[in-house]
Structures are given as C-alpha cells and as structure tokens.
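This entry is passed on directly below:
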Amino acid sequence: MPLFRIQHLSKSYGANIVVDDLSLHIDAGECLGVIGPNGAGKTTIMRMCLGLVAPDAGHIEAFGLPIPQRVREAKKRIGVVTQFDSLDPDFSCVENLRVYGRYFGLSMATINERIPALLAFAALQAMAKVKPGELSGGMRRRLSLGRALINDPDLLLLDEPTTGLDPQARHLMWERLQQLLQQGKAILLTTHFMDEAERLCHRLLVLDRGRRIAEGTPRGLIAEYLESDVVEVYGVGARDAARRHAHLAQRVEHSGDTVFFYLRDPRPLLQALAERAGLRTLHRPANLEDLFLKLTGRQIRDDA
C-alpha cells in the first residue's frame, strides 16, 4: 500500500477548474515531483493534502488515514516546507525548533535531544541563538527544512523549497533532501527548477490547468516526448538559419532571438551551421526544460 495516495481529486473555484480528476501515489523512499506552469494547481494540491482546502471530489489518504477527516492524526507523521518562510521572527533558531516541536506534543526532553542533530543537518550550529531576520535566505530555508523534521516525519510536503536561493544554497538543500530519501522518507515536491526535478525526483507528474498531461521518470519522459539532441542558434542570422535548415531537424521552435532545433542526428545541421559566419550555437542533449516547454508551451502566464 502506498504511503500517500490521491484518487480522482478535483477542485474548482466558480467556473475555474484548478484541479481536474488527479490521481497519484508515493511510496516510502520515493520523491514524486509535480511540475507545471503558474496556475497548474500545484499549491492548491498541497493545501488539500494538508486539509487546508476541501476538495470538491476525490480522496486523499496518508498512511491509510483519510484527509481532511483525520488530518490531525496524519500530520503527526508529515513535515511541511511552504513556498514562503513561516519562521517566527522573534525567536532564535533553537527557539523556533523548540516551539514547533511542542505543536506535535513532543516532550521537551525529546525536542532538546533532537535539536543538535537538526541544527547540524541544516548546517546552522553556529547560528543556534540567531533570529531568522539575521540569516541569509538559504539559511532560513535550511532552518525551515530542519524545523519540518522535528517530528521525525515519514512524508515531507515541499512546495517550491528552493525558490529564491543562490546556486550554492540550492545544492546544499538538494544534498540534504537526498539524505532524507536515503533514510526512507517520502517526498512530494513542487518545483519550477527542472534541474532540481531531474536531480531529486524518481517520478514526475506534469500538470497543466489542473490536469495530468504526462507522468513517468525524468529520463523516461524525455525519451518518450523529445528528440535526443537540441541545437540552439543565437543572434543575428538565427531566424534565417531556421528557414534555410529547418528540413534538417524534426522540430524547430523560436524564443526571442534564439532558435531551437530538435533532432535525432545533429551532424548535418552542425556542419551546415559551421559554414555560416557570425552564428553562435550550442549543441546539447534534450532535458526536462525542453519537455516542460513542449508540453506546456513557451508563453508566459500570469495566473496565480
């Protein structure tokens, strides 16, 4: 039986369908990533999983417990990191951990026993008595993750946990999350970072306007939906190159002053482009960002 399961979940606000007949499951030691553009329903799904929003239809189960009916019991085994920090600015790092642990009914002895390991996990031993306002963004996110572990949860719900972090802080967060997966904890992760999804997730669910449009392993989805190679062409003459050499690719797309050639054999195109002076090119394997853009489009969306 899966650790966590959603079956035929739906949610609408008026005529706006936010989540449309969604099903998913997560096993112990597995990271399931949910990706999609703004307005895809990712945050609404997280809120329903925590019992903060009631679904219109469908079922949610964590550890065999129905949500929202028995959400308080289920939350004892769930850790949560939201998009935005909810740390108490008036408390130090240690005090944030201590107060949060009391929400779960943990004894002070148990909390104090766990705090040193959590501070070490978050690489914040030297900041134990510092308040969140004095920490960097990366430190606050690590503290939020450490705080989410105070109850030793079996399932973590992470809603864009590395948004706003610099590359060094993101890589440290990834390392910490990999450690948790190796310990057998399950993770439901929403993210806009495709490199994060590819690095952490065993399976991916691609959403658009509340509906599942693809599901599988990162490499499996790339192999299923994309050509193997991409050649990017930049700058003056790129669009002319697209017109002249489109027949050498399976698919050609434009974004700003960049032309993307998607193809299975890049050699004829690279040879033709090498004969055109002034063009800048990049040859690379297809990745999750290409998958995301193919399935959801390149148009910027301002939906909430």
User: Anything to note?
Assistant: The chain has three domains: 4-77+153-215, 91-145, 227-285. The chain has eleven helices and 14 strands. The mean pLDDT is 92.
